[in-house]
Design brief:
It is a multi-pass membrane protein. By secondary structure, the protein is an alpha+beta fold. The chain contains 6 helices and 13 strands. The structure holds dinuclear copper ion (CUA). Dinuclear copper ion (CUA) binds next to loops.
């Protein structure tokens, strides 16, 4: 559904990709050149052909050549790197501002009118300035499709990045700084829309997912972190002590109930039963008795938030 990281979707793509390709090209040329040269030398100057080693005096011409050429190449790489980087340092005055809060382990986006979301919504072809606030430890905001990445440093003021989204679509957004156990779950999406749809989205407060600071999805994930679900269950499809949560919502699973195999639909009722009576149904390939009931530890609202989070794990 979302676009991959080779997508080119912002005003900085050209500068970053140009310098990357130039450095890659130069490196690739020297990889081939030096490898071939080495093979030629191995063949030409082996002991059979040259049984007697000869002393070679210095060569001014060669010395100058292999000093000047690398210097020029380095300056070339520097030039394109700088040309791509410099425009990132100053945001246009008319840029729309969004404050990004990073914390262990999610992002929250706050717009100029106070609206808050856990996915970043942006208008197309409008400059955006993201003010980066780290609420606990170091994080880093990385949007590959836009070729932007900036560390989020606790206590650092005027920490920002800016760019102009140029293509409609949904793109990945990651935390790119190891920030603790659940670092790899600290990701979200950027949704770029036409300016007109963005403006009506922005004023539509019915879509405000969090009145205080979190969306139900983020709350659900936080509760699950707190009670330790992720010690045994993953969200990426890999198998630990218990089944992964990835893609289970709305699907059928094979379980054993009272010694009998059957297919059940993963819906609200099934999730509730799995939390409060986890050994009633045992999913195929997993063991009975390893999970204890959370009866009395979670409120109805907690369970609803957890379900909201599980729904997002496709
Ligand atoms: Cu936040 Cu890694």
């Amino acid at each position: 559904m979302y676009s991959s990281e080779i997508t080119q979707a912002s005003n900085f793509v050209k500068g970053v990709d140009t310098s990357f390709l130039i450095i890659l090209g130069i490196s690739f040329f020297f990889l081939i050149f030096l490898t071939v040269l080495m093979l030629v030398f191995i063949y030409k100057y082996n002991r059979k052909r040259n049984p007697k080693a000869t002393q070679i005096e210095g060569s001014t011409k060669l010395e100058v050549l292999w000093t000047v050429i690398p210097f020029l190449l380095t300056m070339l790489m520097f030039y394109f790197g700088w040309a791509g980087y410099k425009p990132m340092l100053k945001a246009p005055d008319d840029a729309m501002e969004v404050t990004v809060y990073g914390r262990m382990w999610n992002f929250m986006f706050e717009y100029e009118n106070g609206k808050r979301t856990d996915t970043l919504f942006l208008p197309k072809d409008k400059p955006v300035k993201l003010n980066l606030v780290a609420m606990d430890v170091l994080h880093s905001l990385y949007i590959p499709a836009f070729r932007v990445k900036q560390d989020m440093v606790p206590g650092k003021e005027n920490n920002f990045m800016w760019f102009e989204p140029q293509k409609k679509g949904t793109y990945e957004l990651f935390c790119a700084e190891y920030c603790g156990l659940q670092h790899s779950y600290m990701y979200s999406y950027v949704k770029v829309m036409e300016d007109s749809s963005f403006q009506s989205w922005m004023v539509d407060t019915t879509q405000v997912v969090a009145e205080n600071i979190e969306s139900p999805t983020a709350t659900g994930r936080r509760i699950m972190q707190n009670i330790g679900c992720f010690a045994c269950h993953t969200v990426d499809g890999s198998k630990l002590v218990g089944p992964s949560f990835k893609g289970i919502w709305g699907e059928e699973v094979t379980v054993t109930t009272g010694g009998e195999k059957r297919q059940v639909l993963v819906d609200e009722e099934y999730i509730r039963r799995s939390i409060f009576d986890p050994n009633a149904d045992i999913v195929d390939g997993f063991n009975k008795g390893l999970m204890l009931s959370y009866e009395g530890q979670l409120s109805e609202e907690d369970v609803e938030n957890i379900i909201e989070y599980l729904k997002t794990l496709h």
